[in-house]
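hey m, so remember when u said the tokens were messed up on ur end? i reran from scratch. heres the input so u can diff it against urs
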Amino acid sequence: MMRAMIKPVAVAVVASALALSAANAEAGSKSWTAVKGSINPKANVIVGGSFAAVRSTKLFSSALQLLLTEEHDAQEAFTLIKDACSIDVPTAIADFTVVMKDGDDPLVVLGLDGVDEKKALTCLEAIGSKQTGNPVKVTGKKKGKVTTYSIPGEKDKLYFAWLAPDVLAFTEDPNQKGKLEKALAGKAAKGDLGKLVAKVNSDAPLWAAVAMKEKEDGMQINGGYGGVELAGGKFTGTVHVVMGSDADAQKAAAMGTAGLGELKQKAAKTSVAAFINSVTISAAGLELTVTGAIADGDLTKMIADLDRVF
């Protein structure tokens, strides 16, 4: 029963994060503030974002509507949680932070608005009751950072961590206590990841730091960082790629600029033209910097032309 109860919650969270990654606006991050002192030392990717004022943008509205139209499970989950718990998921999630290694076993941390542990527990019970037609009682027992949730008589258990009264952390498999404990067994990010995440604006609408090394076209890539800002009805993204040498950065910039010229020709007289023309590529020292901007509402107009241009 616990698995069935948690499914609509998990689906709703993932759906909201996907919509959020498409559109964001500036706000302080509850989730990053709560988790930044507990970063697993093996992590090499941190991504964060915030709903805030973005809820009123055309881009967010379009992205959420498109998601719910294409993902029936997400639509059902949103409806179930709203009916059973009187919680509107996109409104309840204020921000998120995801910490992981090579894209595996992510730790998801949510900053919440108007939802604390008591209300979340009541919601789980309401979902269980709605699904079974019988009263459901969920109990919670905290040890260390992790709280174990169970139903008397049920074998399955769920494991979550409340890092603050309104900040909830969990892994992709909430039935595995060890995964959550391991994910939270750390301190502030150090090494390459620590240096990169220190350069981001963690209050930005969308931000990321990646400390992954790879070779491409004979050039060494050591990681990167960046973010998206919203101002004056326009989303502006900036990505900094840290190369292995100044020469690699200059070579990557030259290759990127050449490729950008080809894209501009393909995009001419299409809805993608304004975005492509806004893109700049430059190199300074070890860093390759790419910027681009899009007006609120333009993305939905661009979708039809994206495949043809790219």
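this time it looks ok to me. The first strand starts at residue 45 and ends at 50. if urs says something different then somethings off w ur setup not the seq
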